[in-house]
Structure formats: structure tokens, C-alpha cells
Design a protein that fits this description.
Helices cover about 50% and strands about 10% of the residues. It is built from 34 helices and 17 strands. The strands form four sheets. The protein has a seven-stranded parallel β-sheet with strand order 3-4-2-5-6-1-7, with helices on both faces. Helix 15 (about 355-375) crosses helix 21 (about 465-480), helix 23 (about 540-560) crosses helix 27 (about 595-615) and helix 32 (about 685-700) crosses helix 34.
Length: about 725
């Protein structure tokens, strides 16, 4: 043994790390490893997992091999160990980020016996030259950090982790310690089996983080504004915002920056030096917020993150727990706010279709558990702990939205029976959307093609809308009464449990408030949650009515539908922001230069008089400014249309899909800019359809919704693209 063995565990803890006592299970875990036994540690974020292998590395002769998934995580931990006063060579990383000279230095320190901890990425571990080199070293033990990456049922599965055991066998067997912050019983079993450590001593710490507050908020079109409003209630505090895509990370970070919030992006697509710089600026509190993909946070030792926001719900509850666990690691305040819409879950389902059937089955199950958590009216803490196999014996945790603001619930047994009956009567051939349309009496082309519009069930649920029936269907999926056929995407099938339910039904409660599928915010009833979002009481209802009356008068004079003047969302935003100048009006949702010039003056005058008469203090500092480069894209699109380029060519040149281009055009005309795409419409939409769609919006439409238009005109004859194209032309010609 080396000289460090002369110190006791507690002396070494104090000498190297500066702590007087161990935390939780740390000491018993370390002693188990020092006695040469394989060790499996499940310890929530902030519990001190890294100490469980760092301290034993100083007690054992030789070098401990730490297998870790992220370069940023390795750098952070190596820097921390060196900062304890140890020599530089005491800890090293061996990964793809090193130069040849740096690799030579690392190998020299390892060969000489100076290095006690070597951090290796699994990809580097599998390289033949590294395997041969490691065979020449005296290895004390292996530590596998973030061990959930081994399991296909884990939230961050990485195939290269499945090869670790075979590499260990090739290099030489030594004691093994595997560590993770999240593992359901199924994931735990999978990890132990793959690592051939079924006999390992298991140490499991409680998953309960009593200082964390959990809340799910409806995700609206104004989610960036909702996030900014929340951050402004947390001045000077550190926070992490998670997004699923790199593109959204970049966009949101820019939006926060132009609105005066110190924020930086972090994702795997950034240059490694920039990633490290942004991470260090966050750790050093030079910025308050990091907007990141899941690549950020694992192993980052920042104890005072006060809030974690999910712009998008993760793909599994394990991922959600892991990411929220980065808040309040010091035991103080930690707020976990997630913005949820079922539409995001549907997008993820579509993305996952490229997976194999086995992978897809796992992914869909994990996604369904996330949906269940997000839409449930039950205590969030109970659900999370039960997911990890841990009971929670309190009825009210007093630290989640469902416990602090209980949602009213209604009996849904009869509704679920109606849904199951509809699935059965349609021979299990329809998707969720079609079942809800059938029940509300609005058959689409698929229903008509199968002649299901002749069934007595047509309109049997017209006492509720499609949003409600979508929620009932999701509840049936959560209850395992229905399943989605993964090999025939989206089609609903009855399970055996569902068939039994039809014979012997039982009580099922459904939350009565927000449906989480109505992302347009057309109905205030769906925005009755605790969050501060569109449709909430923050709008001035008196002013809103006055603005609607003014719009109605103008629409009569102009002989135009009211929504052509300003949409309801614009009037609502005016009744929140109180714009009293032309410049301020341009920042209102759905109002641009064109709309402001054409219709703005009477609205500004009305609002100005109202503000003065009622002595209102205006919250215009809360306006979310647009990121400049988006307006650049808008200008480029308009120029291309002026040159009469085909919309397909424009979309391709701007790296957009056609749907994204249509959305961009809709935003352009909604903000008041006139564009002429008739040259393109004349090529792709026959003149009869053009006339019918145009007249529908002119004479019949009560709103400007293209979905309603398509439903009224008939999906069997018209398609989405042509309705949206003619709607753009209509709004541009008559409204701008």
C-alpha cells in the first residue's frame, strides 16, 4: 500500500477534500469498495456520488479508471481534484479532446505511478491502443459513472456503454463500482446484469428531494414570454433551461439576451472551447442562465442553481428527475418548472419512428409515463418516488402545484367506456384524432372512407369538444386500457385490460382543467392552472371588451371579418401591455409595421385614454423583443417572393421544410406585411378551390383558423396546404 493508506478515511477526507464528515451513505459505500467488493450506488443528484470513488482512489495502490460519458464532466471533476491542492498529475482525462503531446504527458504520469484517477470516455476505452496501454498499468478499481447509460430502459442510453464489461475483462478484472442518480428497479437490474455484477452490494439513497418544488405549466405559443416573466421574478439567481433541440437552444438563448437576461447556450454542436467557456461563465456567475440540451449538467458541481425550467418535456421521467435534480443541490430553494403540451409528445413519437420495433416499444412506454406524470392531478412527489420504487407516506407534499393548488377532478368512467366502444366499433383501425372527431360528430375523410360516419356513434360525444376527448383517450392509454400499435403508427387497439373494463368498469378520475392539447389558447377554461400565461387573469377584461367593440366597428366599415383587422390574441396582448405609441404597438403579438400603420391609430388612442382615465401603470418592460436574425429571414423570404421564386425553392434555400415556410408566411401577413403569392397559388391550386376557400374566409368564417376551414370545406376534397396558401392570400389582400 502507498503512504496514503497510513491515514484513516476521515483524516484523508479532511486532508484532501476539506470535509469533517461524510454525507449520507458515502462512508459505507467507500468501505465496501475498499474491501474489494463490487458496489452499486443509486444516489440522487447532489448526494455526493463522486466522493465514493475519488477518496478510495487515494487509499488503493495504482490508478482508478473512471468511465464517464461527457468530456465537460471529466474536465470539471479533474479540475476540482487538482484544486484540492494535489499535484497536476494526480488526475487526468484521456479522450478525443487531447493533443498528441498532451496524451504523451498523460501516459508518462500514468506509467510513473503519479496518477490516481484516470477519467476515460467509453469511446476512448474501446480503442485497441488504449486497451493495450491500460494492460500495462496497475489498476486499483473501475468506476462507471452515469451507469444508467448502460440500460436501454434508462433515459440516456448509449450503445458503447454495453461494451464496458468486455473491455474490463480484456484489461484485467478489479473491483467495480457503478453509480447513477436515477434507476428504476428495471434499469437497476439491467445495469447489474450487463456489468455481470448481480452479486454487488447495492446502496440506494432516498430519491426524495424535499427542497424541490415541482410544477407543470401549459405550453402556449408565448412560452418564451412566460419563461422571461418567470426569470424576472428570480433576479440574480442561477437557472438552467432545458430544450430538446440545438436549434431551440440557440433561439431561446438569443431571445433571453435581447431581453436583458444574461444567458448563454450549451449543446454538443458548439465548438468545444466555446462549450467550456460558457460552462465556466455559468459556474463563475458571469451569466445567470444556461440554455441547454441534456448534454449540460451531468456532474456539474454548482450547488446554488435555484430553478430548472423545461422548455420541452424530456423523453422519460428518469431524464426529468435527473435534470430537475440539478436545482437546489445545497438543500436550499429549488424550483422545477416544466412547460407541457401533448403536441410535443406527438412530435417525439414521430421522430422515434426510425427506431427498431423493440426500441420503439421501450421509447413509447417511457413517453407514456411522462404524459401520465404531466397530466395527472395527483401529488407530483408521490408519482416520482413511486416511479423509482420508493413509497411516500404523506398525502400532501406541500411542494408541488397539484398539492398547493389541487385541480378539480371529474368521474370519467362513462367517457372512457364511450371511447373504448368507438375503438371497438371502428374495428380498431382509427387514430386518436379520428376517434375524437367521430365522437364530436365531425368526420374526416378517413372516417368517411371507412363509412364509419354511418355509425350511431357519430356525434355521441358532441356534449364535449375534441380537446376533451383527446384527454380522455390519453387517460385510457395511461390506464393501459388502450395502446398505440407501434408497427402501424398511431392506430388505437384495445388491450385485454380494456376489454375487461368494458365488462366490469370502475371509477377513473380526470382532471377538469387544462387539456394540454389546446396550444392555441382559444378557450380560457383550458388555462386555469397556477402559471402566469396567456388566458390568465393578467389581461384587463374591461379593456379587452372595449378593443373588441372597436374592432367590430372597424370591420363593419371595412366590410371585413373582425379577425382580419387584429386577431383575439393581439387584442388580448394589448390589454396586458397597454401600448400607447406606434412603436410599442409593433411589439404586440401578431402586429407588425403594416398592421400598426393601417389599423393602429384608433386602438392606440383608445388605450391611451383608458390608461390615463384609470391611472394604470403599464408593464411594457415585459415585452419580449424579437431576435434580429428572424427579421432578416423575413426580409429574405419577402424578396424571394417579389422575384416570384417557387415556394419549394425558397424553403430549400432557407433550410426550412414546407410547413415551416407556410408558418413563416402566416406570421408575415399576420403582422401586417402584404405579400403576393398568387403566382404560386395559380400553379398548385385549381381556380375553383381558390374561389371556394377565399369566399369561405370572406363570408362564412367566424375565426381565421385554417383547421376549421379545412373541416368545414371537407378533407376529402381539400388539403391543408391549399387552404393555408389561400388563407395567406386572403389575409394579405384584405387585411394588409
Amino acid at each position: 500500500m502507498e503512504a496514503t493508506k497510513e491515514y484513516t478515511l476521515h483524516e484523508l477526507l479532511k486532508k484532501i477534500f476539506g470535509f469533517s464528515q461524510f454525507k449520507g451513505n458515502q462512508e459505507v459505500v467507500i468501505r465496501n469498495l475498499l474491501e474489494g467488493r463490487d458496489t452499486f450506488v443509486i444516489m440522487p443528484t447532489g448526494g455526493g456520488k463522486s466522493m465514493c470513488y475519488q477518496l478510495p482512489a487515494f487509499m488503493y495502490p495504482g490508478t482508478a479508471i473512471i468511465i464517464s460519458p461527457l468530456i465537460a464532466l471529466m474536465k470539471n471533476q479533474v479540475d476540482a481534484i487538482r484544486n484540492f491542492g494535489a499535484e497536476q498529475g494526480i488526475a487526468h482525462v484521456l479522450n478525443s479532446s487531447l493533443t498528441k503531446a498532451e496524451i504523451a504527458r498523460v501516459k508518462s504520469d500514468l506509467t510513473s505511478g503519479h496518477t490516481k484517477l484516470l477519467y476515460v470516455a467509453p469511446e476512448s476505452l474501446t480503442k485497441e491502443e488504449n486497451v493495450e496501454f491500460l494492460k500495462t498499468l496497475q489498476i486499483s478499481f473501475y468506476a462507471i459513472d452515469e451507469a444508467h447509460c448502460i440500460s436501454e430502459w434508462g433515459h440516456d442510453f448509449r450503445p458503447e456503454y454495453r461494451r464496458i464489461r468486455s473491455i474490463i475483462e480484456a484489461v484485467g478484472k478489479r473491483p467495480l463500482i457503478a453509480l447513477t442518480a436515477t434507476a428504476t428497479p428495471k434499469v437497476q437490474q439491467d445495469i447489474q446484469k450487463n456489468l455481470n455484477m448481480l452479486d454487488a452490494t447495492v446502496f440506494k439513497t432516498s430519491f426524495n428531494r424535499p427542497n424541490l418544488y415541482y410544477e407543470i405549466r401549459p405550453k402556449t405559443k408565448d412560452v418564451a414570454k412566460d419563461i422571461i416573466k418567470y426569470i424576472r421574478t428570480q433576479p440574480g439567481k442561477s437557472g438552467i433551461i432545458y430544450c430538446l433541440s440545438r436549434k431551440k437552444v440557440e433561439e431561446l438563448a438569443q431571445t433571453l439576451q435581447v431581453n436583458g437576461i444574461k444567458a448563454l447556450p450549451y449543446h454538443a454542436g458548439l465548438d468545444s472551447a466555446l462549450r467550456v467557456k460558457n460552462q465556466d461563465m455559468f459556474l463563475m456567475e458571469e451569466v445567470d442562465v444556461i440554455v441547454a440540451t441534456i448534454a449540460f449538467g451531468m456532474g456539474i458541481d454548482k450547488p446554488d442553481v435555484r430553478y430548472v425550467i423545461h422548455h420541452d418535456m424530456p423523453k422519460s421521467l428518469e431524464a426529468y428527475y435527473q435534470e430537475t435534480g440539478r436545482a437546489g443541490r445545497d438543500g436550499a430553494e429549488g424550483n422545477c418548472i416544466a412547460f407541457y403540451t401533448y403536441d410535443d409528445m406527438l412530435k417525439m413519437e414521430k421522430i422515434m419512428q426510425a427506431k427498431s420495433v423493440a426500441e420503439l416499444e421501450i421509447a413509447n412506454q417511457l413517453l407514456l409515463e411522462t404524459v401520465s406524470y404531466a397530466e395527472s392531478a395527483h401529488c407530483r412527489r408521490i408519482q416520482l418516488l413511486n416511479y423509482f420504487g420508493e413509497p411516500y407516506h404523506e398525502d400532501n407534499c406541500h411542494a408541488c402545484d397539484n398539492c398547493l393548488h389541487p385541480k378539480p377532478r371529474q368521474e370519467a368512467m362513462e367517457h372512457i367506456l364511450l371511447v373504448l366502444d368507438a375503438v371497438k366499433e371502428t374495428k380498431q383501425l382509427l387514430k386518436s384524432k379520428q376517434i375524437s372527431l367521430l365522437l364530436t360528430g365531425n368526420p374526416d375523410s378517413v372516417i368517411k372512407a371507412h363509412r364509419y360516419d354511418k355509425l350511431d356513434l357519430l356525434g355521441a360525444g358532441d356534449f364535449e369538444d375534441t380537446y376533451f376527448w383527446n384527454a380522455v383517450i390519453r387517460q385510457a392509454l395511461v390506464e393501459n386500457l388502450l395502446l398505440k400499435d407501434i408497427e402501424n403508427y398511431g392506430i388505437l387497439k384495445l388491450t385485454e385490460k380494456g376489454k375487461d373494463f368494458m365488462v366490469n368498469p370502475y371509477s377513473v378520475l380526470l382532471a377538469k382543467d387544462h387539456d394540454y392539447g389546446n396550444t392555441d389558447g382559444d378557450d380560457d377554461e383550458y388555462f386555469a392552472g397556477s402559471g402566469d400565461h396567456r388566458g390568465s387573469s393578467s389581461a384587463d377584461s374591461t379593456l379587452f371588451v372595449m378593443l373588441k367593440d372597436l374592432r367590430k366597428n372597424i370591420s363593419k366599415k371595412e366590410d371585413l371579418p373582425p379577425f382580419v383587422i387584429f386577431q383575439d390574441t393581439s387584442l388580448e396582448d394589448m390589454s396586458i401591455q397597454y401600448p400607447i405609441t406606434h412603436e410599442e404597438l409593433k411589439h404586440i403579438s401578431g402586429v407588425g409595421e403594416g398592421k400598426a400603420l393601417k389599423y393602429g391609430k384608433p386602438f392606440i388612442e383608445l388605450i391611451k385614454n383608458y390608461v390615463e382615465e384609470n391611472e394604470i401603470i403599464r408593464p411594457m418592460d415585459m415585452v419580449v423583443k424579437s431576435v434580429v436574425n428572424k427579421s432578416g429571414l423575413k426580409v429574405d423570404i419577402i424578396r424571394s417572393i417579389d422575384k416570384k421564386h417557387s415556394l419549394e425553392d425558397i424553403a430549400m434555400s432557407k433550410n426550412l421544410d414546407f410547413d415551416e415556410l407556410l408558418t413563416a408566411l402566416e406570421h408575415i401577413v399576420a403582422s401586417g406585411t402584404r405579400i403576393d403569392i398568387s403566382y404560386y397559388i395559380d400553379e398548385v391550386v385549381d381556380s375553383f378551390h381558390q374561389e371556394e376557400i377565399f369566399e369561405y374566409f370572406r363570408e362564412e368564417a367566424e375565426t381565421d383558423s385554417w383547421q376549421e376551414a379545412l373541416n368545414e370545406l371537407g378533407e376529402d376534397e381539400y388539403n391543408e396546404e391549399e387552404v393555408r396558401l389561400v388563407r395567406i392570400r386572403f389575409l394579405s389582400e384584405l387585411g394588409n
